[in-house]
């Protein structure tokens, strides 16, 4: 992992897991939610400089009325990352609806912008949220904006392979309940 000039806590959560305690300790929040989704008051009331809201569906392609992540979303994540520094970042909370796709991709993009390699970025995300299945479309745009020349996508493919091997049941049924049914210890292996 890189040695940044500062350290911070990272949380990657689903919307149902975001509670007052998590948001109270968060210095910065990134929300990736379906358009029109109501955010918890603790997030909505944060100073606008400490939060970023991206209203986008967890989709690979936009269809009428259902926007997928786009280039501007990746740019917004990088601009937000550029505002983070030693004096103002202690706990970054990134969430979407399930905490496994949009939020995992967004967290990886932010970490790469902060100086992590793509592999290290995904390792850090996986250390706090596992399994993850990052939104490929958001990562394609992030790879382009960050000028990673495919490295972000290559690192994500390794994440996908690991999940397919270790969590095949979840890949076929990605509902939160399917993780609950897994044997204890299977998730962290």
UniProtKB/TrEMBL annotation:
Residues 78-129 form the Tyrosine specific protein phosphatases domain. PROSITE patterns: TYR_PHOSPHATASE_1, TYR_PHOSPHATASE_2. InterPro entries: Prot-tyrosine_phosphatase-like, Tyr_Pase_AS, Tyr_Pase_dom. Signal peptide: none annotated. This is Dual specificity phosphatase, catalytic domain.
């Amino acid at each position: 992992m890189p040695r940044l000039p500062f350290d911070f806590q990272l949380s990657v959560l689903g919307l149902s897991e975001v509670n007052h305690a998590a948001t109270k300790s968060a210095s910065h929040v990134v929300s990736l939610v379906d358009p029109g989704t109501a955010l918890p008051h603790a997030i909505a009331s944060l100073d606008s400089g400490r939060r970023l809201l991206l209203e986008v569906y967890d989709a690979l392609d936009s269809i009428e009325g259902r926007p997928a992540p786009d280039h501007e979303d990746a740019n917004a994540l990088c601009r937000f990352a550029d505002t983070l520094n030693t004096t103002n970042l202690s706990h970054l909370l990134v969430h979407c609806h399930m905490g496994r796709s949009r939020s995992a991709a967004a967290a990886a993009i932010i970490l790469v912008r902060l100086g992590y390699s793509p592999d290290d970025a995904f390792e850090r995300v996986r250390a706090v949220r596992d399994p993850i299945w990052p939104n490929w479309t958001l990562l394609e745009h992030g790879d382009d904006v960050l000028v990673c020349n495919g490295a972000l996508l290559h690192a994500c493919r390794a994440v996908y392979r690991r999940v397919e091997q270790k969590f095949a049941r979840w890949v076929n049924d990605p509902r939160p309940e399917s993780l609950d049914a897994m044997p204890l210890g299977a998730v962290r292996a």
